[in-house]
Design brief:
Pfam families: RNase_H2_suC
Number of strands: 9
GO biological process, one term: RNA catabolic process
Largest sheet: 3 strands, antiparallel
Protein name: Ribonuclease H2 subunit C
Structural class: mainly beta
Distance between the termini: 74 Å
InterPro entries: RNase_H2_subunit_C, RNase_H2_suC
Strand content: 35-45%
Number of helices: 1
């Protein structure tokens, strides 16, 4: 009897997983040569640091800007998640002190998995266009030899 029955559809090729009951299909994508992907993490610290140098008679201590600041003032404001610039107080921050946000790389990668809902992402996926852009930009900005 097993020989008389055939599958209606062949099993899918590539990667397949399920997330919250939805089928996801994916494939490995290589980062273009000469480029590298980074996993970025954000760390929050109080703005600057207080200058407690000896002999200071000032009642208020000045804030000294830290030299390692990479990115600042990218905060989300409002319930709708509207992006804006400025400082905001975080629930875990010290009262009265605004927080600086530092962004740094925690890992790097040269390939990743591109997932699509129900089907493998096609050639028109926006990620593929973004990966093709550096090569295209290099080609259109290259010097043209004079003939």
């Amino acid at each position: 009897m097993d020989q008389a029955l055939t599958e209606a559809r062949p099993p899918p090729s590539g990667l397949q997983v399920s997330f919250r009951g939805r089928s996801l299909r994916g494939e490995e994508v290589e980062v273009p040569p000469g480029l590298l992907g980074y996993v970025m993490v954000m760390e929050e610290k109080p703005v600057g640091k207080q200058d407690f140098s000896a002999g200071s008679d000032r009642e208020e201590q000045e804030l000294v800007e830290p030299p390692e600041a990479l990115e600042r003032d990218f905060v989300s404001t409002g319930a709708a998640g509207v992006r804006g610039c400025g400082r905001e107080r975080r629930p875990h921050a010290e009262p009265g002190l605004p927080q600086d946000r530092f962004i740094g790389a925690s890992a790097s990668f040269s390939r990743f998995t591109l997932w699509g809902l129900e089907t493998t992402p096609g050639p028109d996926a926006k990620v593929r266009a973004a990966l093709a852009w550096p090569g295209l930009a290099e080609a259109i900005h290259a010097q043209v030899p004079q003939d």
